[in-house]
Write a structure and sequence with these properties.
53% helix, 2 strands, two-stranded antiparallel sheet, 185 residues, mainly alpha
Length: 185
């Protein structure tokens, strides 16, 4: 049976990727895109700028929050701040996933363990698809999808990877060409 991802969470690796002491606006090259919502609660100054607006308790709060965060996302794009845009997108994603979690499990607890240590998923709420948190999740999902499919965002993401992540990673094609150039046939 599967288990919650936090059980084997590698804190040391996470701390190598993201530092709360780094100003990612001044040092965008230090930002690791990561997967999912990695870095969202660490990367400054964006955490302090976006975090206070993140709410999903009611559909009204979720709408206000998602709208504000999406407008911040667009502003970061206008200012050519990829890191801010990526983190705003991650906050929208986190709004969707957290609201969905509470829609499915009102206590917020999804997993439990049997006395012998095996993990299992708790039963889903009977109103998982129509309660307030489900509506909040849909509001965030709409904004998150707009952000993650934004053409300028996708271009900036590609450029960030090209400039900061992959310049030292050679493709298999490049390696083979180098090997063939160096051979004496």
């Amino acid at each position: 049976m599967s288990k919650p991802t936090y059980v084997d969470f590698d804190m040391e690796r996470h701390q190598q990727l993201y530092s709360p002491r780094t100003d990612y606006r001044k040092n965008p090259a230090h930002y690791h895109i990561g997967k999912g919502q990695q870095g969202v609660l660490i990367c400054e100054p964006y955490k302090s700028e976006i975090g206070p607006h993140w709410r999903f308790k009611t559909p009204e709060l979720a709408h206000k929050s998602a709208t504000k965060i999406y407008s911040m996302f667009l502003e970061y794009l206008r200012n050519d701040e990829f890191v801010g845009a990526d983190l705003a997108k991650k906050y929208l994603h986190m709004g969707f996933t957290r609201a969905r979690r509470y829609a499915n499990h009102p206590s917020g607890t999804k997993w439990a363990q049997t006395p012998n240590g095996e993990w299992y998923i708790l039963p889903q709420d009977v109103h998982w698809d129509s309660n307030d948190k489900a509506v909040s999740a849909e509001i965030f999902k709409i904004h998150w999808e707009l952000a993650r499919n934004n053409k300028k965002y996708l271009h900036m993401k590609k450029e960030h990877r090209k400039n900061y992540v992959y310049p030292y990673v050679r493709t298999e094609y490049e390696i083979r060409n180098e090997i063939h150039r160096n051979r004496n046939y």
